[in-house]
Amino acid sequence: MNAAERAARLRAEIAAHNEAYHVFDAPTIPDADYDALVRELRAIEAEHPELNVEDSVSHKVGAPPSTLFTPVTHAEPMLSLDNVFDVAELRAWSARAAKTLDVSSEELVFVVEPKIDGLALSIEYVDGVLARAATRGDGRVGEDVTENVRRISNVPLTLSGNVRTRVEVRGEVFLAKSDFVEMNQRQREAGQKEFANPRNAAAGSLRQKDPSITASRPLSFLSYQLVELGGASSFTRYVETLTQLATWGFLTASETTTELGATAMIARSDWFEEHRHELRYQIDGIVVKVDDLAQRTRLGFTSRAPRWAIARKLPPEERTTRLRNIEVSVGRTGRVTPFAVLEPVVVAGSTVAMATLHNEDQVKVKDVRPGDLVIVRKAGDVIPEVVSAVSEPGRRRKPRWKFPTTCPACGSVLERVGDESDTYCVNPACPAQQLQQIVHFASRGALDIEGLGEQRVAQLLGVGLISDVADLFSLHVHDLSVLEGLGELSATSLVNAIQGAKTMPLSRLLVALGIRHVGPVAARELAAAFRSYQRIEAASFDELAGVAGVGPVIAASVVAYLSEDENRDRARRFEADGLTMVEPQVRTTLEQTLAERAVVVTGSVEGYSRDGAEEAIVARGGTSPGSVSKKTYCVVVGEAPGASKVSKARELGVPMVPAGDFEILLESGSWRTQLA
Fold first, then answer.
1. Residue 115 is a catalytic residue
2. CB 409 within 8 A of CB 435
3. Which residues contact 11 (CB under 8 A, 6 or more apart)?
4. SS (H, E, C) 102-117
């Protein structure tokens, strides 16, 4: 295939992907694969200028608007951004900009902000009143989605202050990560197809003919550009426009910073790559802009993008690869989970060879089969998952995969419990369950026994030294030092680590036991309320259910666990081996302003990590559950909050406190301002 033929094929393929992504909100390949196609086409056009035709898709933005909505011509084109993929390319871009401006790149002032993975939107205000909203479309003509945008809760219908001009506010419609997870959980529980990713879910939710559907989805809008249509700009710097947007009531990215010089700018972009998963919204890159608006004018534009801004794309979190097979694993509770065996592929900076498929129903809904080309997603430390199959016209697919009827580890018949979508091996002696129970018991979030990973546990089970978690505390150095890979020094370290776990607080032991529904929050609440394992054993169902953050479901699970003879015997063995099994009384000099009060935090609070905010509440005597209920004292609302928590608070009449009052809440137990 010659260059002209390859360029023609690439243009057709890219155009089809543009339509799928921008018009139907249903991309057929991940962004990384799409970017690779565009880069290949531009390389061909650069090497063969005669092929660099004016109407090539490499020069275009987005895709033509669909016929579902009324077309809207943008007062000023909504251009895209050129991309770079590493630090060297980012440095080269800043050097080119500096050269054009006849300054050093270390003299330039840059603004560095997150690149939200959402749907680009322009909202026009006339005399301070929302007049029209439109999608990007092809950059010049978009779609009128005004009625839908009016239903996005954080979009101001009127601008605060006496605004007597015509302006456009541009930004991204997005779904906060927590809201996206909750939406997909509901889809999964209903046996319905999950949304592919937050961007597609947000775009599909906005581009609905029925505005009530949009209103039912927890969409948010983040603004990043102010276009003044009524005359000359009254601003000289980009950051001044962001301040104005925030003053009018728009959400702006709190992580945005101003950096002097390319070195500082690159360091900040590295920060975003390192902390991308701590943000409340999904990002696929970092946007760097020249701050000085006069310098922007001098730098100008290409046919599709400004020369004064660039997007540094982050390592892709979605890639395509071939699905070799589907197998199942057995967990510590007996749950049997299907997983994909893949042709290894690098996703988010690491090689992925296996990915979860959740349960039998999700395999059916996604209709993925061995041999399929599939999209795989991996975000940070999250377990990789198969998103969907990629259509391959003309390729014959294998038959649908069938879930096994017997346990692959012990041969017992598998069962589905009630209306649950999960399948279980109900044999308590199943060796796979025993292995995972002990691995969980020793894991970092439980008793944190260093050196007791899955391979070591499997070895100890294999030689018969242990069969239950209680056996761990009877191990001796002479038992272990003769095993392969364990000399006397290593054996001594492992035994010491196991013995050290005896003093772990009760809350960590409750997590380690793997009681169904008892996670870290419920474990802390139970431990704080009863202080010892023996008192939990003696508690009634009503006493357990009455603990804040526990409730009847968790209480029933705890009662069921404690009623089993095997579990009672294990507890007695723990006592005999010297486990403390108590929760230490935390001594603090801080005033207990939030004693026995449940405070839910949603969104980011300046100066606090997610865990830090929770710890601050606990230190003041309060609790910080993950959901809103009638017992919630208040909800602290930070940047990019979860819409479901805000909605639930409004529904139940729970007070909502702005993040700016968080310190006051900690100090006094009250607040200055209450959100509507």
1. yes
2. no
3. 41, 56, 57, 58
4. CCCCCCCEEEEEEEEC
Coil, helix or strand for 50?
helix
- Note the residue count of the chain: 676
Mean pLDDT confidence for 4-9 = 79
Nearest CA-CA partner of 178 in 600, 463, 652, 653: 600
- 189: tokens are 């529980």
What contacts 289, CB < 8 A, 6 or more positions away?
110, 111, 113, 238, 308, 309
- Closest by CA to 498, choosing from 544, 438, 428, 415, is 438
Contacting residues for 589 by C-beta, under 8 A, at least 6 apart = none
Q: What is the pLDDT of residues 451-505, one digit of tens each?
A: 999 999 999 999 999 999 999 999 999 999 999 989 999 999 999 999 999 999 9
Residue 208, sorted as left (phi over 0), alpha (psi -120 to 50) or beta, turns out to be beta
- The single-letter DSSP state of residue 336 is E
Q: Which of 310, 386, 270 is nearest to 30 (CA)?
A: 386
- Token look-up 């401006």 returns 101
* 391 and 411 Cβ atoms separated by less than 8 Å: no
Question: CA–CA separation, 116 vs 280, rounded Å?
Answer: 10
| Catalytic-labelled residue, pool 99, 115, 364, 502 | 115
Centre a 10 Å sphere on the Cβ of residue 496 and count the other Cβ atoms it contains: 13
pLDDT at 23: 61
- CATH numeric code, 3-60: 1.10.287.610
* CATH tag, 73-313: 3.30.470.30
Q: Is the pLDDT of residue 210 over 90?
A: no
Parallel, antiparallel, or unpaired for β 119-126 and 166-175?
antiparallel
Domain ranges (residues) in the chain: 3-60, 73-313, 318-393+403-423, 431-576, 598-668
**Identity of the amino acid at 509:** L
The answer to whether 169 and 225 are in contact (CB under 8 A) is yes
User: Is 673 in a helix, a strand, or coil?
Assistant: coil
Closest to 74 (Cα-Cα) out of 128, 6, 160, 144: 144
Third-level CATH fold of 431-576: DNA polymerase; domain 1 (1.10.150)
Model pTM greater than 0.85? no
Question: Which H, E and C letters describe 360-424, residue by residue?
Answer: HHHHHHHCCCCCCEEEEECCCCCCCEEEEECCCCCCCCCCCCCCCCECCCCCCEEEECCCCCCEE
Inter-residue long-range contacts of 667-671, CB under 8 Å, 24+ positions, other chains counted: 667/591, 667/593, 668/593, 669/593, 669/594, 669/597, 669/620, 671/634
Please report where in the chains the tokens 């001044």 appear, as a residue: 240
pLDDT tens profile 410-445 = 999 999 877 778 899 999 889 999 999 999 999 988
Bigger pLDDT: 96 vs 163? 96
Which pair of tokens denotes residue 192? 């319905």
Residue 307 CA: distances (Å) to CA of 62, 109, 196 = 18, 15, 33
| Superfamily of chain region 598-668 | BRCT domain (3.40.50.10190)
- Supply the pLDDT for residue 579: 96
Q: pLDDT tier at 26 (50, 70, 90 boundaries)?
A: low
- The fold adopted by the segment(s) 318-393+403-423 is OB fold (Dihydrolipoamide Acetyltransferase, E2P) (2.40.50)
**Cβ(55)–Cβ(10) under 8 Å?**
no
